[in-house]
């Protein structure tokens, strides 16, 4: 039987190790690499934080499968067994520009189900932590999603990270759809940190296309353990070790409204 609390301890220590490296790199000149033509970026801080995070995991779990974002692992097929997912710098663009919104995210899936999450915001020294069946916390304080009863009462995060015109067009459609039904829309970046704050009740929803496990598996567990829901655009719960289109919310009617809104279409010029 897998000891989830022990895994959570490892995840927390690993996330803190990555976060410590990010603080060190704030005053350094960064080497920045484009992953696409303009928008999707990585940096020397990402690589250094990933090295520290994975080293912390391997020191305690040397035989486990550990997958880091900067290694670009294949997530086209469901994963088997226990897998670690590492996003060493969630919010790279913010970090590069000096905007204080980034984190290190570590999660564990078991047979495609998220079972452990640790999202660490080093600037605020906030550790968001969740264990399947054990609730979600921030620095030991229990988290609970917003109690809003309808989408019009919540702020929704809608995001995209691409220079592809088709992806941008779809983002604009989703932005318009969410503005149509919600109490407001934001685009701060750092999806794992966004979902952590959704779990804390600071946001009511999050919508984004084609999200990989290192970005959302841990956040999904935080949201679910705080009483919310995470599905795809059809309202289905998906394998957390694969990519899928994400709708996360405080649950109930709010979630149903957001799922329905993902299908909204608009006439040209209107």
Summary?
The chain has helices spanning 4-25, 44-60, 92-97, 165-181, 191-199, 213-225, 252-261, and strands spanning 32-34, 41-43, 65-68, 82-90, 103-110, 113-121, 126-131, 135-138, 141-142, 156-159, 185-186, 205-211, 229-231, 244-249.
Structural class: alpha+beta
Question: Sheet bearing the most strands, described?
Answer: 7 strands, mixed
CATH architecture of the largest domain: 2-Layer Sandwich
For the secondary structure, the number of strands is 14
- Uncertain spans: none
Identify the CATH homologous superfamily of the largest domain: Fructose-1,6-Bisphosphatase, subunit A, domain 1
Task: For the largest sheet, list the strands in their spatial order.
Answer: 3-4-5-6-7-8-9
Mean pLDDT: 94
Number of spatially distinct domains: 2
N-end to C-end Cα span: 56 Å
Outline: globular
At the fold tier of CATH, the topology name of the largest domain is Fructose-1,6-Bisphosphatase, Chain A, domain 1
User: What does the radius of gyration come to?
Assistant: 17 Å
At the first level of CATH, the class of the largest domain is Alpha Beta
Number of helices: 7
Task: Provide the succession of SSEs.
Answer: HEEHEEHEEEEEEHEHEHEEH
Helix % is 25-40%
């Amino acid at each position: 039987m897998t000891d989830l609390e022990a895994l959570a301890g490892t995840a927390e220590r690993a996330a803190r190790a990555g976060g410590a490296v990010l603080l060190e790199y704030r005053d350094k000149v960064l080497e920045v690499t484009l992953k696409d033509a303009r928008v999707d970026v990585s940096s020397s801080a990402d690589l250094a934080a990933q090295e520290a995070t994975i080293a912390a995991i391997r020191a305690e779990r040397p035989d486990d499968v550990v997958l880091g974002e900067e290694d670009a692992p294949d997530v086209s097929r469901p994963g088997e067994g226990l897998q670690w997912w590492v996003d060493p710098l969630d919010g790279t663009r913010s970090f590069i520009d000096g905007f204080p919104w980034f984190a290190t995210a570590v999660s564990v899936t078991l047979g495609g189900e998220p079972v452990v999450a640790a999202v660490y915001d080093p600037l605020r020294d906030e550790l968001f932590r969740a264990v399947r069946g054990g609730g979600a916390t921030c620095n030991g304080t229990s988290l609970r999603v917003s109690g809003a009863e309808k989408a019009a009462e919540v702020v929704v995060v809608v995001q995209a990270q691409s220079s592809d015109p088709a992806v941008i067009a779809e983002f604009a459609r989703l932005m318009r759809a969410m503005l149509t039904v919600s109490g407001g829309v934001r685009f701060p970046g750092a999806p794992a940190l966004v979902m952590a704050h959704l779990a804390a009740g600071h946001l009511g929803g999050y919508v984004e296309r084609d999200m990989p496990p290192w970005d959302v598996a841990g956040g999904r567990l935080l949201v679910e353990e705080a009483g919310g829901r995470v599905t795809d655009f059809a309202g289905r719960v998906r394998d957390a070790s694969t990519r899928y289109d994400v709708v996360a919310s405080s649950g109930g009617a709010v979630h149903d409204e957001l799922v329905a809104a993902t299908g909204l279409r608009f006439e040209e010029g209107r």
